[in-house]
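Appendix B, record 7
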Amino acid sequence: MARYRPAVGSTARARSLRKRMTKAEMAMLRLLRSGFPDWHFRKQVPIGRHVADFASHKAKLIIEVDGGQHSEPRDASRTYVLQAAGYRVIRFWNNDVLGNPDGVAILIDAALVSSATPTPALPPQGGGQHGALLMARLNYVELPVSDVGAARAFYEAAFGWEMTAFGPTYAATLTGDTDVGLQGDAAEATKAPLPVIEVDDLEAALAAVERAGGRIVRPIFAFPGGRRFQFLDPSGNEVAAVQSEAHS
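Structure tokens (predicted):
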């Protein structure tokens, strides 16, 4: 099994956020579990480069609880990325969640009712089949190294990167954005740096790569944190596509 963990940054950040939820977030969690159990809302869900406060994959609905940790420009960026991943986003202020839970529940129920009503989707321009790859983005770059300790020390000293060791042959940054991994296992390492693209439907991505002329060199396999496959593009560059466990 590969030691590479392309989604570990966002997953670790989500776990950290779950341990320090605010009073309003805890109140929202109780409301969702008691009032909307069939929609299977999850807390602190990694989606793209962000961590959504609450998400129902079944309803494709995200609920954000806004307090001092949010800012308007950052919220706009978050909303754009989350909507690009196919989710609708609704937001509530902390004081509404804590002081008016009945009103909050009514709005959530209305959003879920509209989620249950299918809306015809327009095909992509040109008739292509790219819907499944809507969330495709560069997620990770993995560097083959001969000495993980020395390479980690170099990047920490040169760029101030904080890297976490995953055993003696692997280390990685955990920013939750585009991270860097150091692969010291010769059996797992590629000959050149390996860019990793995150997608939300791995099978559809594999089919699209093959249709476009790519050559699969490692079929889909599981690793801690999700699944991935590797392919060669027409120029011979090896690239990986990954689907995190949050989207499996």
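Remarks on this record: The longest strand covers residues 215-223. Residues 1-10, 69-74, 117-135 have pLDDT under 50 and may be disordered.
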